[in-house]
Design a protein that fits this description.
The chain is built from six helices and two strands. The two termini are 17 Å apart. The chain is mainly alpha-helical. β1 and β2 form a beta hairpin. The N terminus and C terminus are likely disordered.
Length: 205
């Protein structure tokens, strides 16, 4: 990504990537917040990467565990844009969950809680449209819905999250041997979670 014109350059003054598409070149922190030009930021996820569903889940999980839900949302966004139409609701809902966690950690508790609930509704609706596929690619959709709704309540009650990583979900609870939920103290708690293979609003930064 380049900012050939720079923030104060001639012409439109818009940053553009290597292909000439408009894209903000300002560095960002681990939660995706823009930093001043020249600051040391966290590398952005490349756009338009086509991954297998399991690669998407693994990469997004690593980013969530690292406290970088904004970057995880970009991975989910690639999946919804490049995957089959019938799966768009699933990946878009997951992206909304990641952005809800991002806003909650940034201190935007109203927007964070709203997006967590919206994402929960989207992934829950997807399972209703695809009966028998509650664990697509090992993703524990029922557990994610519970996690998101519980976290939304906590965010509204307690305010900004201190640590996005500590509140991140486990996407494939059976694969990890446990599921993460949010208790009253906001800690991860382990529970049984089997996994099986299934088929198959804007989420701005």
């Amino acid at each position: 990504m380049t900012g050939a014109l720079g923030p104060d350059g001639a012409g439109s003054g818009r940053d553009r990537d290597a292909e000439g598409r408009a894209r903000n070149a300002r560095p960002r922190d681990g939660l995706g917040r823009p930093l001043p030009y020249g600051s040391d930021g966290v590398e952005r996820q490349p756009e338009g990467v086509v991954r297998t569903p399991r690669e998407t889940v693994a990469e997004a999980q690593a980013l969530l565990d690292a406290g970088r839900p904004f970057h995880a949302h970009e991975v989910f966004e690639d999946a919804w844009k490049s995957g089959p139409d019938e799966e768009r609701g699933l990946w878009k809902g997951l992206a909304q969950l990641a952005v809800g966690l991002t806003h909650s950690a940034r201190g935007n508790t109203t927007g964070g809680a709203r997006l967590l609930r919206r994402g929960a509704g989207a992934v829950a609706a997807w399972t209703e449209e695809a009966p028998g596929r509650q664990r697509p690619y090992g993703i524990g959709v029922p557990e994610l819905v519970v996690w998101a709704r519980e976290l939304a309540v906590r965010v509204e009650r307690d305010g900004q999250l201190a640590d996005a990583a500590a509140c991140s979900p486990t996407l494939s609870p059976g694969g990890a041997g446990a599921e993460r939920t949010v208790d009253d103290g906001g800690e991860r708690t382990a529970g049984d979670g089997g996994a099986g293979d299934g088929g198959a609003g804007g989420v701005a930064g």
